[in-house]
Structures are given as C-alpha cells and as structure tokens.
Write a structure and sequence with these properties.
single chain; about 170 residues; mainly alpha; two-stranded antiparallel ribbon; about 65% helix
C-alpha cells in the first residue's frame, strides 16, 4: 500500500480519504478495496520515515484534516520502484506444495486436490466476469486488472490440466 500511496501523492497533495477514493476509482471493484484505517496507518509510517510530510488544514464546520505531500526522499523511493522489475515467476506455490506432499502423507489425493483447486479457479473467474459486466466499462485500468487476473487464472487452469495428465501417464 505504501508505494501506490506515494504514486498518488506524486501528482499533488491529498488527504487520506481522497487517496482511498482515488484508488477505488482507479482500480475498480476487482481490486481489494483499501481500508481507510490501513491508509492512515500507512500514511503515518510514510511520514515517520520521511517519504511524505503532512500539514494540518483547518476546516470551519468539520474537524481539521491532514494533507500529505511527497518529499524528495519519497520521490526518489517512487522512482526506484518504477525502475525495479516485478517479482520472479512464482515457484513457492502453496497448492503445488500440497500436491507434491500428498502422496507422502497419505492424507490427500492429488486428483482431488487438482479438482478442488480447479473449481476454485473457475468460481474466481466467474466472479471476475461478473465484475467486468457490472463495472463501468470506461475504466480501462480496472478492465486491464481483471483481464490480467483472468489470463493468470487461465494459465493456472492449463497448468492444473498438465499436472493431471502427468499423473495419468504410465511411468
């Protein structure tokens, strides 16, 4: 959450609730909605670490609000984030660990594990498909997020099929 908040602050000062709304609007319903408490805790940590600065702003009919802006150190951190590449392909996969250990423990059947995981992926795809039709189709970023998730799920489904084929092949 810290780097996305820094990125939003790079365009200009904002308060916590405004940042929450911006994230929700940008990413749509497919992305887990940020908790306002989590945002304010993260903003506090970012301020403590010198990546942002906050300034109390008086409001006449409401409690004061704190407006945050990016510091030079925050901008450097953000630039480093954009320069860094994403994580490596996942090789530490919880499902695969269950799948690999099932024959040794005798507590689960590998085909049952595959089928259960497949059902889970298909249900997730179904729910994501509903979000695409329910969401504003003009939100290209949210649409790309859902499309990326669907493509990852399809790859996972293909891989599950490959695992099942491997089990069914005679040695």
């Amino acid at each position: 959450m810290r780097l996305p908040l820094l990125a939003l602050l790079a365009r200009g000062p904002a308060h916590g609730y405004e940042l929450k709304q911006d994230l929700e609007q940008l990413l749509g319903a497919a992305y887990p909605q940020p908790n306002i408490g989590q945002i304010y805790v993260t903003l506090g940590r970012l301020e403590k670490s010198g990546l942002i600065e906050g300034e109390e702003v008086e409001q006449s009919s409401r409690p004061n609000k704190k407006i945050y802006h990016l510091t030079d150190a925050g901008q450097e951190t953000l630039l480093a984030w954009y320069e860094d590449t994403a994580d490596e392909p996942r090789v530490r996969d919880e499902f695969f660990m269950k799948f690999a250990l099932a024959p040794q423990t005798g507590l689960a059947d590998q085909i049952d594990l595959i089928n259960k995981q497949r059902r889970h992926y298909l249900n997730t795809m179904r729910n994501l498909s509903k979000l695409v039709t329910a969401e504003n189709r003009d939100n290209r970023i949210a649409h790309l997020l859902v499309e990326g998730a669907m493509l990852h799920l399809q790859a996972d489904l293909d891989w599950l099929e490959r695992c099942q084929e491997e089990l069914e092949e005679p040695e």
